[in-house]
## 1
Amino acid sequence: MNRLLRPLTGLGRTLGRTTLGLTLDLASGLARAGEAAADSLGGRDRSPAVLRVRVLILRDGKGVPLTTPEAVQPALNTADRILRQEVGVRVRVASIRTVVEIPPDAALNPRANKALLLDDVLGRTEFYRRHLDTVDTVDAAGPADAARIPDAVRSLLPPVLAVPITVIVVRQIAGNTTGCSLGSSADWVIAQAALFDAANTDSYDETVLVHELGHALNLPHHTDRSNLMAPESSPPDRIRGTRLVGWQRALIQANRHVIPGAVSGTAPDHG
Ligand SMILES: [Zn+2]
């Protein structure tokens, strides 16, 4: 592909994914609102919804993994606890893998926010996407979860609904950023390895992973420091809060990545 055409193709892909993501979020949200209304009329309860998360750990230039699955696990547990308490969504870890191929510097030490979006448009996030693609997306929801997806939503599968969000552990993100997401246009987020280094109290922060998941689920920043989507978090003393408010809950529950809970039994008959 020539040099002029390549950015245009990348732009089309990024814009296309953004539009597709937003459209699917809306469609899945409408389908779920209808289901929830039917359940409440029928007096039925639902088990927690599920968000599946994958973790890809990169290696440094010498081939040494940037972190370990054990080190990432507490942040995944925190994500599960916060989303369960605040939104009724369980975080299920689908896999934690260490990528064998040594990444180019741009993938190991990526740029943040708008620059990362530009890099996505320019095709510079190829390394991430190539390794996402090696993971199965055909039966992304898994057999047990797939059975719980409403028929109206299931007809759109695969591979765009109920796809897990992948957390890619990188070495260093440019600037003061420690994690970054492209919002609903990407099924992946990046997080800096030092976030998971419990020995380093100045960098260890279990809230960043779940904050970035929030962005991937379409949440913008929130000004309240007690909110999970507060932009700033400074370990060890000023770590952001974990709260989510009503409209944030609604956005997460309607998101195309979230698998709705199963209906658990029927309500007692009041005659
Ligand atoms: Zn943020």
## 2
Amino acid sequence: MFKSLFTLLNTKIKNEILLLFFLNFIVAFFEVLSIGSIPIFLMYMMDPINLVEKIPLDFIKEFFKNFLSSSDIFKNLKTVLFLLFTIFLIKNLIILFNSIYQAFFNRRISTLLASSLFNKYLSEDYIFFINNKPSELIKNMESIGIVRSLITMMLVSAKEILTIVGLIVIIGVSDFKISLLMILLGIIFMIMHKYKIAGVLVYYGKKSYKYTESRLSLINDFFGSIIDIKINNKEKFFSNLFKRYFWSYESARIIDKLISSMVRPIVEMTSILIMILVIFVFLIEGKTFIEIIPLITLLSLSFIRILPSVITLLNTLNRIKFESNQLKYLLKNISLIEKEFENKKDKKVINFEEKIEINNLSFSYLEKKIKSIKNINVTINKNEVVGIIGKSGSGKTTLLNNISNLLKFDTGEIIFDGTKIFPNQNYILKNLSYIRQDIYLLDDTIRNNILFGEEENENSDNKIQSSLIKAGLEKFKDKLDLIIGHKGSKISGGENQMLGLARAIFRDPKIIFLDEPTSNLDYKTQRNYLQTIKNLGITTLIIAHRKEALNICDKILLMKEGSIVDQGSLDYFKKKYSNFETYIN
Ligand SMILES: Nc1ncnc2c1ncn2[C@@H]1O[C@H](COP(=O)(O)OP(=O)(O)OP(=O)(O)O)[C@@H](O)[C@H]1O
Ligand SMILES: [Mg+2]
């Protein structure tokens, strides 16, 4: 896991992490120094001569001997206290600086990570979104924080381990048996963790993410079906389902919480046992209280400092295990390279002008062996309005999605003004506007809904107003700042559709696709809507479920089971098919 994390990092971030490591190292050093200084201070207070005798290096010993004999005891004490204070001051200043630096580092890393996953999803093809549930993608986006935590945990762990090692060394200098005992206990803990606890955590971690996903999915469905829930009186059903998912999620989390909460008592009890043991052994060895006090002070201070470290470390270890599956997924799918979002480089840009020729086009959705589009051959000429009719499921929407490259066709070719497109090729039809029945409007102003990411300039408001007027929405022309609500819930269904038309017109398309655009419109508005389309005078493909739409068509294609089975003018169809109406509804 750490390896794949490191392959993600670029040099700049690696350097920063190195710097943070270095800072943490200094913090650890001062931690040990400051804790070690207190028992030494105590020894100094009780018996300065004896303390100096314990110094191993001769020249330092001489220096301190001189120091002790040079002036009176109060002056010395002042110097010693000043030293003590300075050590603590430096330590805390470094800790403060480290935290500030880390906070800024975190901000950058988090933004980088989250945008990286978001951009990855943005650059996926439409088919990816057909095959992946939004709730799962939301869950992944939401869990991205754990990668940052992994980096932070690494840094913190390094510091804590260094501190622990330092303290164990100091204790070892005073009495190596105690250090040995501590190391032994540590090893036992680690082995137990690896063979007993880790597996349980991974198992429940996986479960907890599964239920997070189900819960998000349910919430999505709940908002989407609120009207059906109310009408069908199904509140209780959804309420129970939600309770069940939440319960299961919390159950999976219980094990994680139980294990975390067990860490502290176990570590604490072990420490106190060590203390008691040490005191007993010393008393049996016949040492005096005065001799024991500095060591006991060192031990207590070390335990007070080590305890939280050990608890943090163990809990960190547990966290990593618990989240390991999600972490693996994220590490595989993110990058830490700072870059602007780029559209796929191999995307061909098509500036449509004249004619579309479709030859032998076929397509099937991934999971289905059956072809949803079969051997389509058709030519669409400049400024032609082409209607597509056919029963439900005959492939009308799929065909438009194939031509617009939302779905990449499997075999055949499409030729735009002589530019040939091959199966699975990426391209973008630059001057296409595609209006669907289920247009998704942003919970934003009319202006931003029409702009939809286009740059604003001094003319854009005028252009927005004229698009609104053309689309039959004069009433909104002076209300560009009106917020239309979630999915346009603060305006009518028909107005939603007309706003979709205004957005399409605003982009000055050369070609326009319409998938059942008029279903929410009254008769008169529908006529105006269709007339507006006709007046645009541009190449148009319109999927028609109402016969009025066919009145504006120059040519009609009849689809059946993925194929075009007939084509001709409206009169031709009316004459040939007595049951013509059944193909529309
Ligand atoms: N995501 C999908 N995965 C698998 N099969 C699909 C998918 N979407 C559509 N299909 C199938 O492809 C065929 C064509 O569907 P399409 O949506 O193009 O029909 P349509 O003519 O637009 O129908 P409607 O008039 O109801 O909108 C249908 O048989 C449908 O079941
Ligand atoms: Mg359709």
